[in-house]
Design a protein that fits this description.
Chain A is an alpha/beta fold. Helix content of chain A is 38%, strand content 23%. A six-stranded mixed sheet of chain A has the order 6-7-8-3-9-10, with helices on both faces. A four-stranded antiparallel sheet of chain A has the order 2-1-4-5, with helices on one face. Chain A starts with 7 loop residues before the first helix and ends in a 5-residue tail after the last helix. By secondary structure, chain B is an all-alpha fold. Chain B folds into two domains: 45 residues; 223 residues, no CATH class. In chain B, 89% of the residues lie in helices and 0% in strands. Chain B starts with a helix and ends with a helix. The chains are: A alpha/beta, B mainly alpha. Chains A and B meet through helix 3, helix 4 and helix 6 of A and helix 4 of B.
Chain lengths: 273, 270
């Protein structure tokens, strides 16, 4: 466990020991001194984190602590005010339009609201990024890719439905399927279990783990659901006041006496019992 | 003394508010300018969204067709009815088809079509894109390495720009038909005689000015709707605001353009 940034080098070594040998030292996402302000309000205030290849990192924090802002910066949807965000060896804020488009082919972003295109069917939702990014594919290959990815999220029968006919959990799965169809190297999940019942949440957690194994992705899971963080995160990072105040594996992080982290744990687990 | 400082404070506050409003206004104009420049950059760069453009053209045409038919037809009848007594006073009812032709082709058809399209198509574009913006669908397109501007904005602006001249010609024909039915009912004029007489004073400049107007109106309605929707904020309230602003701004600009194009056309005519 570390209290970033002072002892994190040590903590990263601990993490690396638990990771496959091939991935050691292979940093996919490296964020240092990240600051993001909206007018006078500073949302991120010096965020530092290194994420290794194949790792699932759950970012925990209360609402409004800048968790979603963090992954939007990684996806290039927002620009940082200060600091560096290096993903797959490239500094995101310095990419030009063409490079950004190329970079985004390697990134999958699952939105909190699923953000499915509501005027299109599930098939059209999945085809949309595929036909525009892989123009060499013929109709048969596109059809096969759509059916295969729907199979892998367990929803092959929804192919001709429109988003308004789907349940919250189904929408999340289709949203994940739409990102998986481009076979991304990095997955960014924004509150994947928010607003879902406990059983559907477990299904989504399992899906996140399945994606990690099958697609060999590196993931950041933004959540305030400790069960989700525990089930999906190889590493947990707690964001508070615009900084990571704790990082490590789940059990290590929640052994702390830090009031904010303790409160988070107690409200999620103790008060539910 | 305290009252003076209060008044001074209020004036200062008002000055700040005025400065902020002016600042917002000019920033808005600059942003629209950048939006239009981006449109012209993207419109020529492949890949092209042909399927979406055709779908949008069909949507724009179909969405307004019923309303345009009705209003065009009624305008033709009403304008003829209202003009007849004045011309009859001078025994000049035979000039009625010619007057109707000039009025409909030069002014009424483009203006009525544009106003209806602004209300029907402009608001629809504003609301649709606004809703996509606030539900993060546009962001989702962006992070999936596609170009939402090309798919959503370019296709819609092309559709409104291409479809508006067709709709204007259609409105003109329907309006003339309404007018013919009224004249035929009163004066038993034949179809051929009516149309011969209606088009006798219509020049190439009149028709080309109308088509140019239609293109300008179509572009304006498309850009205003897309700009408002694409930049919508603040949830459902923002969607309503985007739809509303799209209509108000489009209508205002349509009238400004009408005034300018009429002046230029009159200048060319003389």
């Amino acid at each position: 466990m570390c209290r970033w940034p002072t002892t994190c080098a040590l903590d990263n070594n601990v993490m690396k020991e638990n990771m496959p040998a091939a991935n050691q030292g292979n940093i996919v996402i490296s964020i240092h001194g990240l600051v993001k302000k909206f007018e006078a309000v500073s949302v991120l205030n010096g965020v530092d984190i290194d994420i290794y290849k194949g790792e699932n990192v759950a970012v925990l924090g209360r609402s409004g602590t800048g968790k979603s802002v963090l992954i939007k910066i990684i996806a290039g949807l927002l620009a940082p005010d200060e600091g560096t965000v290096i993903v797959l060896g490239k500094e995101v804020s310095k990419l030009n339009v063409k490079e950004l488009q190329e970079y985004r082919r390697k990134i999958g972003f699952s939105f909190q609201s699923s953000a499915l295109y509501d005027s299109m069917t599930v098939r059209q939702n999945l085809e949309f990024p595929l036909v525009r990014n892989k123009r060499e594919l013929n109709n048969k290959e596109v059809k096969e890719a759509v059916e295969s990815v729907l199979e892998s999220v367990g929803l092959p029968k929804t192919i001709n439905q429109v988003p308004s006919e789907l349940s919250g959990g189904q929408r999340k799965r289709i949203g994940i399927a739409r990102t998986l169809i481009l076979r991304p190297e990095i997955m960014l999940y924004d509150e994947p279990t928010a607003g879902l019942d406990p059983i559907t949440s477990v299904e989504i957690n399992n899906l996140i783990n399945k994606v990690q194994k099958e697609y060999n992705t590196t993931s950041i899971i933004i959540t305030h659901d400790l069960t989700c963080a525990k089930e999906t995160g190889d590493k947990v990072a707690v964001l508070s006041d615009g900084k990571f105040i704790e990082q490590g594996n789940f059990d290590e992080v929640f052994k702390t006496n830090d009031k904010i982290v303790r409160d988070f744990y107690d409200y999620n687990f103790t008060s539910n019992k | 003394m305290a009252q003076d400082s209060d008044t001074y404070g209020q004036i200062k506050k008002k000055k700040h508010l005025l400065a902020a409003a002016l600042g917002d206004f000019f920033t808005g104009i600059y942003n629209v300018y950048r939006f239009i420049i981006r449109f012209f950059k993207e419109v020529f760069i492949p890949p092209y969204e042909f399927k979406e453009i055709i779908r949008q053209c069909y949507d724009v045409g179909c969405r307004s067709l019923a309303l345009i038919s009705l209003t065009g037809f009624i305008t033709g009848i009403v304008f003829t009815k209202q003009s007849r007594p004045s011309l009859a006073e001078f025994g000049a009812t035979s000039w009625l088809p010619s007057l109707i032709g000039i009025a409909i082709i030069r002014a009424l058809a483009p203006l009525i079509t544009a106003l209806i399209a602004a209300g029907k198509v402009g608001s629809n574009i504003g609301a649709e894109l606004g809703s996509m913006k606030v539900t993060e669908q546009i962001d989702a397109m962006e992070v999936s390495a596609t170009n939402p501007f090309k798919f959503l904005v370019v296709s819609r602006v092309i559709a409104t720009t291409v479809m508006m001249p067709i709709l204007v010609l259609y409105t003109g024909l329907v309006g003339m038909l309404g007018s013919y039915l009224n004249i035929h009912h009163n004066e038993a004029t034949s179809f051929t005689a009516f149309f011969k007489s209606a088009f006798i004073n219509i020049s190439f400049l009149d028709i080309s000015a109308s088509i140019f107007k239609a293109i300008a109106y179509g572009f304006t309605i498309g850009i205003a709707g897309c700009y408002q929707g694409y930049n919508a904020t603040k949830g459902t309230e923002g969607v309503g605001k985007a739809a509303n602003s799209a209509v108000v701004i489009s209508m205002f600009l349509v009238f400004v353009e009408e005034m300018i194009i009429v002046q230029v056309a009159n200048h060319l005519r003389t």
